[in-house]
Amino acid sequence: MMSEASIKARRTSHSYIEDSSDALVVYTSGTTGKPKGVVHTHRSLRANVESLVEAWQWSPKDKILNVLPMHHVHGIINILNCSLYAGADCHMHTEKFKSD
Q1: pLDDT tens, 83-98?
Q2: Burial profile 26-57: b = 16 or more Cβ within 10 angstroms, e = fewer
Q3: Residue 96 and residue 37: Cα distance in Å, rounded?
Q4: CA 57 to chain centroid
């Protein structure tokens, strides 16, 4: 688990990025209406990543294999960004799925 000091250090080391700046557009599937793009700010992404890093107790000793597509929010945020934020190793699965 990351300490408060290390989280604070990460925040200040990237202070040139405005929290309110657009960071990512996620497209919804349209479950409750028409599909649409939702803009996330750096603040919302950081809050999401920090809460997941704490809840899942990510650490620099962790290693994870990301087999999820990079066009899916879970692969981008929950695996890639969390592992990078925590200093963990993220290995990307690059082979195409074969249904044989």
Answers
A1: 999 999 999 988 776 7
A2: eeeeeeeeeeeeeebebeebbebbbebbeeee
A3: 27
A4: 14
Distance (Å, whole) CA 87 – CA 14 = 15
Question: The pTM is what?
Answer: 0.73
Question: Which residues contact residue 23 at a Cβ distance below 8 angstroms, ignoring those fewer than 6 apart?
Answer: 40, 41, 42, 44, 45
42-85 residue pLDDT tens: 999 999 999 999 999 999 999 999 998 888 889 999 999 999 99
Whether the Cβ atoms of residue 54 and residue 2 lie closer than 8 Å to each other: yes
Q: Which residue is listed with tokens 């592992």?
A: 83
